[in-house]
Amino acid sequence: MTVDVRGTSYALLNEFSENPHAMLVLWKGYAAILKANEIEY
Length: 41
Hints:
Layout: H1 29-40
């Protein structure tokens, strides 16, 4: 996550509010494990 010198996420700053690249994206790594378990069993 990108932050400024005060530790504020860029996604929370007005100048980046419309920039999708500044948004925090959650990675769903657990989904791959669930899918692998479906295939395996």
